[in-house]
Amino acid sequence: MSPGYLPFAGALALPAYTCDNCGFWQRHFTAPPSCPMCLDARHVVPQDGWQFWTEAEAQARFPCHWEELEPGVWRFWNDPVSGIGPSAYLIQTPAGNMGFEACPVFSEAALRHIAALGGMQMLSSSHPHAYGALVQLQDRFDPELCLPAADFVWSAALQVSWPYDDFLEPLPGLELHRTAGHFDGHAVLFDRSRKILFCGDALKFELDPNDFRRAVTISAHKAFVRGVPLTTNELRRYRDVFAALDFTQTWTPFEPAANCGRREVLALIDGMLANRPHAAPVPLDSLRR
Fold this sequence. Notes:
The protein contains 6 helices and 18 strands. It is globular, with a radius of gyration of 18 Å. By secondary structure, it is an alpha+beta fold. A 6-stranded mixed sheet has the order 4-5-6-7-8-9, covered by helices on one side. A 6-stranded mixed sheet has the order 10-11-12-13-16-17, with no helix packed on it. A 3-stranded antiparallel sheet has the order 2-1-3.
């Protein structure tokens, strides 16, 4: 049990429901009347009204898949799926396993696979758009849940056991850094040994249709669906965080881009700081000139 964790029989004992429009989970005594994530300015409401699924209903509708992208780094995703559809990552280290982000729903087979890999000792996410089924992981494996205090308001379905401000190293070699920007508590995870930056929604890629690990464009945004750019100060904070991290790969919850690292990311940000911030995709090759 996590240090300082006080179990209670209140909200976390309620059944969990996921929104079909965005994948955000809520605990409620019946299907929720609405979804706060869809009502947030960074998203859109469903055109035909709300639809919520129980865990069993979501498992039946959205098949779960997984693969080992690199030694000791696993990706889990749902296909087909409605809503935002982020991926989950499981990172194995000598000190334990850490989950970062969550797919919309984990199948029982996927949860058994995670158990066979050693379970999950630490769990975190970049921001609420990528929370996915964190509730399943917490209910099944009882990991330490590390989330930025700045996004605590979005964690009502969860039990946060290790809140942090701007930096946390929950396992040796795995660093959480709060970037803010996209959300006030938006954070990235840096794997020092593998030089992978799990960047959340700080960045967005378009991929080569023939190679899902190769990005062709990159962008940064406050709200991707609505095309809202970040502010100059938000970009400066991004730059301060990214400049201190020696990463050669940049993985979002949707695109594990193996061909983009710190050089390209800083070039994107510097270009916007020198002119006007925008949310348009920029060809990755143009940032290497």
